[in-house]
Amino acid sequence: MSKEKYKLHPVTAIINVVKALKDLLIPIIIIVAANGFNINLDYRSETFFSEMIPLFILVIVLSVTVVSSLIKWWTFVYWFEDSELRVEYGLFIKKKRYIPFDRIQNLNYKEGIFHRLFKLVQVQVETAGSKDGKPEAELTAVTKAAADEVEIQMKKAKQKLPIESELGQTAEDEKQEPASVVLHKMKIPELLLLATTSSGVGVVLAGVFAVLSQFAEFIPFDLIYDELAFLVEYGFIVVMILIALALILAWGVSVGLTFLNYYNFTVSKQHDRLIITRGLIEKKRVTIPLNRVQAIKLAENPFQQMLGLASVAVESAGGGFSGENDKKIILFPLIAKKELFAPLAELFPEYDFQITQLVQPPRKAQPFFYRIDFVWLVPLIGAISYFFYPYGLLSILLIVPIILLGRWQFKTTGYTVKDQQITIVSRLVSRVTFYALKKRVQITQGSQTYFQKRRDIGSVKIVVMSGMHGASATARHMEQQEIESVLSWYEH
Question: How do 441-447 and 77-81 pair as beta strands?
């Protein structure tokens, strides 16, 4: 086995600096804003040192960041030895990480702007021990041939074949790899629908308000209020046009963000692996062994449900787009339900995605779906009515949508067990269908509160391994005998 040590591409130093500056962006803004955007270069001024000290600190921090980024690139080496990927870096404190190839679950790839300029790729090594969404090791910028070399070394080590380290060998091996089969590719109209029916517009508006709240003291609200008062004089229609323009602008930003994240979103299958690629500026590619998928979750918000659309995610015991803490991986961000089941059946033939009949809660359980909301609703109505009397009394009308939502949840909830599979359907606002096989379920738990016991009903929860805390689904307020039947199904 070759012990030749490899270095990262020099553009790694630039990427490290940019990444460090990105992490320091908020502290930089705070320091500059706290200084009142004042730069006093007159050293004879009495306020020179007091005004420049924060900037001196900032310059020192930036200098340390740049130097440490350069040192990390200069000292970083990786090599293959004893069926391990070995990584070492550091000048005064040497950090070493030896990763056995048989512990590596996934190799994920990213291509940012700098990578694409120099035809490079970032390789992230995922193992079961990867924590907080961070990869076990990361090769920040290597050539695609070098990235292929890592994958081939890993495959050969797992197959216990003699390991070669010549990059020329990789091309020959790559030819033996069967081509992947594209199962789904998002189209432009689907991206527009995704931006419109998802919560993207709300997220943009919330982000704008969050930024405004941070810089409230620098915003001339009095001037803005005067301008708005002037506009209101022109009538209700002008105000409505301005609100409509703001919503259109938020929608446009949401569309832009959706295109950045999901452009060219493609789902492919290669042997027993699921491959997902996406991204406009930063291209990401994640590989998920199908045997690591623990459960499948189909979600439909009310708008998507009306239009016959859904999104699908898989809960994985490992893998994911690194940097994203959640182990839930979006398989289909948005897809027509009538086109959904063919690719799902191709990927997961063990599952049955057709729900013929659900076991649902009894009628006596219906009040349990909304009366718990009265615990927070009644004090809220009381407070609003007291402080804003008499108009605050209108808050009593909130009871109506709460009861209607509870009835909607009651009519949606249910479960079905078929052979080795359990399917649970539930709703908070969106309808969620959770598919899991018995061999993937880690915990099945029945519960019954004092009030449920009086009506002989209870809830059942299943948990599958995904991330630190697992992923779960709950069928609430079912007949107690149904809870017992689910527990019996799991035990036998």
Answer: unpaired
